[in-house]
């Protein structure tokens, strides 16, 4: 979880591969209307995210042996919604600052639907999950291999506890 550009898709893919788990790419499940809004630089509302979160919850339930989901999960209510669908769900929070997120999103502007004009609204919407149970905060500026190792070590530690 985290704002646009924090590295959800990159870490999600690496973690799914390392853990031998299926990957659910949250961005693939936004409605066409939501994708168009984001392309135009219009931030999604709670209402826009409602059906999307319901779909993601159903996808988690369809993978009872586990899965890696990439999902911005910006507000506590969104995370609680997913926890409701999938008890035991844990979150890896990729924390990044505005400048670096803005740079990353701008750098891929030609190939990705997300408008860089929206980065500020992502930070305005973000409610930090730090302090909630089952959350690992990672520094999104670390290299991908290190992030994957830290996330895998956390998962292993929780499973042996
Ligand atoms: N750990 C990292 N170090 C350096 N660059 C990274 C790292 N993780 C991702 N990136 C780069 O940052 C950009 C955004 O990454 P990615 O698409 O994984 O983020 P995201 O959070 O899934 O973004 P979005 O949700 O907006 O698609 C990509 O160009 C990616 O290559
Ligand atoms: O809740 C949201 O506003 C969205 O999920 C965004 O975070 C983007 O889809 C994503 O980060 C861009 O790829």
- What is the count of DSSP helices, taking H or I runs of 4+ residues? 7
Strand elements, count? 4
- SSE order: HEHHEHEHHEH
- Neighbour order of strands in the largest sheet: 1-2
Span between termini:
24 Å
The low-pLDDT segments are: none
Can you name the CATH architecture?
Answer: 3-Layer(aba) Sandwich
Helix content: 40-55%
Q: Any idea of the CATH topology?
A: Rossmann fold
Radius of gyration based on Cα positions: 15 Å
| Ligands (ions, cofactors included) | adenosine-5'-triphosphate, D-gluconic acid
CATH class: Alpha Beta
Provide key terms for this protein.
mainly alpha; two-stranded parallel ribbon; two-stranded parallel sheet; binds adenosine-5'-triphosphate; binds D-gluconic acid
Q: Can you characterise this structure?
A:
By secondary structure, the protein is mainly alpha-helical. The chain has a single domain, classed as Rossmann fold. Helix content is 50%, strand content 10%. A two-stranded parallel ribbon has the order 1-2. Helix 1 packs across helix 7 (144-160) and helix 3 (46-61) runs parallel beside helix 4. It binds adenosine-5'-triphosphate (ATP) and D-gluconic acid (GCO). D-gluconic acid binds at residues 4, 27, 44, 49, 72, 74, 114, 122. It catalyses: D-gluconate + ATP = 6-phospho-D-gluconate + ADP + H(+). Pathway: Carbohydrate acid metabolism. This is Gluconokinase.
How would the blueprint of this fold be written?
Blueprint: H1 8-19, E1 23-25, H2 32-39, H3 46-61, E2 68-70, H4 76-85, E3 91-95, H5 98-107, H6 119-125, E4 135-139, H7 144-160
Parallel strand pairs: 1-2, 3-4
Helix pairs in contact: 1-7, 3-4
The chain binds adenosine-5'-triphosphate and D-gluconic acid.
């Amino acid at each position: 979880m985290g704002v646009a550009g924090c590295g959800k898709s990159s870490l999600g893919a690496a973690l799914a591969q390392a853990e031998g788990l299926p990957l659910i790419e949250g961005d693939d499940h936004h409605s066409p209307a939501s994708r168009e809004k984001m392309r135009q630089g219009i931030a999604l509302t709670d209402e826009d995210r409602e059906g999307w979160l319901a779909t993601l919850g159903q996808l988690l339930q369809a993978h009872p042996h586990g899965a890696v989901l990439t999902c911005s999960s910006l507000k506590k209510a969104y995370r609680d919604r997913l926890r409701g669908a999938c008890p035991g769900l844990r979150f890896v929070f990729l924390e990044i600052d505005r400048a670096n997120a803005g740079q990353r999103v701008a750098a891929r502007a030609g190939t990705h639907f997300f408008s860089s004009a929206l980065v500020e609204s992502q930070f305005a919407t973000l409610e930090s999950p730090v302090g909630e149970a089952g959350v690992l905060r990672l520094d999104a500026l670390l290299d991908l291999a290190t992030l994957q190792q830290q996330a895998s070590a956390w998962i292993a530690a929780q499973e042996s506890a």
